[in-house]
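Please check our next protein.
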Amino acid sequence: MDCEKALRGAAAVRGRSSSRRRTARGESDRPVATSLDRISSEPSRPARVGTGSAPPRRVPLPLLLTSLCLALSVSLVCGAGLGASGLSWAEVLRYLWAGLTGGAIGPDEVPAYTIVWELRLSRAVLAAVVGAGLSAIGVAVQAMVRNALADPFVLGISSGAAVGANAVLIFGVLGALGIWALSTAAFLSALLAMVLVYAVARTERGLTPLRLILTGTAMYYGFSAVTTFMVFAAERGEAARSAMMWLLGSLSGANWAAVPIAAGAVLAGLAHLGWSARRLNALAMGDETAAALGVDPGRLRKELFLVSAAVTGAVVAVSGAIGFVGLMVPHAVRMLVGADHRRLLAVAPLTGAVLLIWVDILSRVVLAPAELPVGVLTAVIGVPCFILLMRRRAYSFGGI
């Protein structure tokens, strides 16, 4: 009997040891889908810095989404109403209603209606689209390269788009396309930059985070050197000024024709990222963990690269290189909703849209009738906010 008890005890010990080894290798007795569902539905809380600090409170998601949708609606109205020309809010609301319902306006009201509907509202809508796209792609890129300092421009796509845009502004390339010349050239050069980055960064093992960051950074400096040379080679001072304005980000050329193209690219990107949210949760935990959960990190990283590059190229083509939105918004949203990418990708686009609308309003009214580049104000606002965010003891980067 003692011998039998000893044998049963040894078997139990071997079973526990085998279970511990499987756990150490990242394996699980549960099916892969079940493990991935559990990680998606119960995301790990960010580690707290220091001892004795209380975990950060999470804002209820329905309340947050409702508040952001309301804030976006109010921001769009304010974007159409605020500007250098002195229009009353009653006039602004009447023109907006006429534009939405097709109502009639008097001949003497056409100039004011054009300012509100054609210039200001289209610009506010485009700012919302651009802000939403940059914020969502910022979330995706930070998960893709697992780097807290990553943003949509770390891949070098924006600097590639700048080459095409400057070729139009300075040398008149593609002038036959008229108002479409700038956005077309910027998007085509962004696609070319995407192909170059992919060709250089790709290895037999696929795309790795380190090679993507290094290749994107190298391409960024290379394309920036080309654009700087083009600006210095410009014969007209006004052309160089327009090029610098575009490089710093500007929505001054916004019109309704540019909105559907940019909005279509952003919505398609958001749909793909939302569908991939659970896989992003696994990827943010590391390649080995993602593979153990049934996610192919190489394939997912390739998908994210293509989506990020395409959306960034489409957004930059209509707005220029507006920095800091894709870096700051994802970190700020993580403080509110945690590290689950399903929640992040629901909140970050709305937050970015509201933020960029108000930054664009400030760019128009601070030095009216002159206009500041939007990218200057995003940096002025973003840098101190980001520093304050980093100083919070309870904040971490959600495992990234």
User: Anything to note?
Assistant: The domain at 55-391 is CATH 1.10.3470.10 (ABC transporter involved in vitamin B12 uptake, BtuC).
